[in-house]
Amino acid sequence: MAEKPKTNALKARLPRGLVDRHAGTIKATERMLAAIREVYERYGFEPVETPLIEYTDALGKFLPDQDRPNEGVFSFQDDDEQWLSLRYDLTAPLARYVAENFDALPKPYRSYRAGWVFRNEKPGPGRFRQFMQFDADTIGAASPAADAEMCMMMADTLEALGLERGQYVIRVNNRKVLDGVMEAIGLAGEENAGRRLTVLRAIDKLDKFGPQGVRLLLGEGRKDESGDFTKGAGLDDASIDKMLAYVGTASDSGAFVSLRKLVEGSQSGLSGVGELEEIETLIKAAGYGPDRIKIDPSVVRGLEYYTGPVFEAELLFETVNEKGEPARFGSIGGGGRYDGLVGRFRSESVPGTGFSIGVSRLMAALSALGKISAAPEPGPVVVTVFDRDRMGDYQRMVKVLRDAGIRAELYLGGSGPKAQLKYADKRNSPCVVIQGGDEKAKGVVQIKDLALGKQMSADIADNATWREERPAQVEVPESDLVAAVRRIVEGDA
């Protein structure tokens, strides 16, 4: 048996945690981004763009669920021995940009950005190493009115994308309140920073593991189904009860009374409750009820740089997961106040607040609801080539169509007529233009409506009849080319 010849060809393979995107997905995403952008600009926000790469120390060490400096970040060393990293979100680069251009920017500075971010972590279902975010931020405004505006803008954005009330909610909490509760259970001070972070991560898993799972993470730790053990915060039973009482506080008129009792004696905690009350007053005054925006003490947000109000956009409708089980999309975005982030680069503190949308996750949710489609759009009209010595004639036809505003391309391959029709079909072309020598002599062109042809040919039993009837193929004078093609293209659209 002859051995297979050796080959030096590379194996085509995609790195883990990354995806290729086809035309339908790209165009659907662009439509969604345009709708989001329209709402952001209506609120007075303007675009800015920062690079994908920043100095590592400028990004800081704020990633959620990471225990070591720079873990979770793709980093490399430049030729001048400076460490650089791919950005893991859009907020830290914005803080650097504002600090670097502080005197030239209007304050408050209102901007939005859309772009790719990168996380060096283990990929999993729905968890990617590269994903897109769309952020809006206000820097230089300390008032809770700026936080309230973020929540209102997020609600308006989701409705602009076709979501209805009852299908989403913007949940609002305040890190100061949580800090007050941790102070009340003895976790104040720099020496307890690590345990406070463990508590934050535990509470952030409430939706995933439920109260009992969080109780384990607040205590000695939790073992998952695979046997992996996550070390807990080591709180005693009384402290765990207080933390669970905090996250379980009902989102109703009595919430503020309950929260004040939990943070009694903590100035920071009481200040946070006051800010939540002011936010609720403002959103109610603007006509946003609890069906759209509500106070919810269980919202934590994983990033460590938040210093005040935090918010999360949650989708409430159910869908079906890959196992056929009922599931919710859950959070598709969030944000909060980060008054210390810009101040890392300056001598004074600079207040900031912002919101980030997870573009891919929101796209999946809108697709599940039928609000947006990533199905391939109609492709260009294809002008076929029957006589290779008449390329100039075919190129002229293409230009006439393009000048009329019709997407068109000349077939540039080397195949014959049948393969050219198959090519046009794969391109999802609405129609093809055909002109052989006989048509040229008569001054006419054949135009084949591919979509209609598929429908009609389904009813034709044999090839002889198909060739005789030429389903959905019409002959028109060359002078009528644009009008005839336009009718097909517009009918297909």
UniProtKB/TrEMBL annotation:
It comes from the Bacteria. CDD domains: HisRS-like_core, HisRS_anticodon. It is an enzyme of class 6 (ligase). Transmembrane segments: none annotated. One of its GO terms (molecular function) is histidine-tRNA ligase activity. Pfam families: HGTP_anticodon, tRNA-synt_His. Its main location: cytoplasm. HAMAP family: His_tRNA_synth. Homodimer. Belongs to the class-II aminoacyl-tRNA synthetase family. This is Histidine--tRNA ligase. It comes from Kaistia geumhonensis.
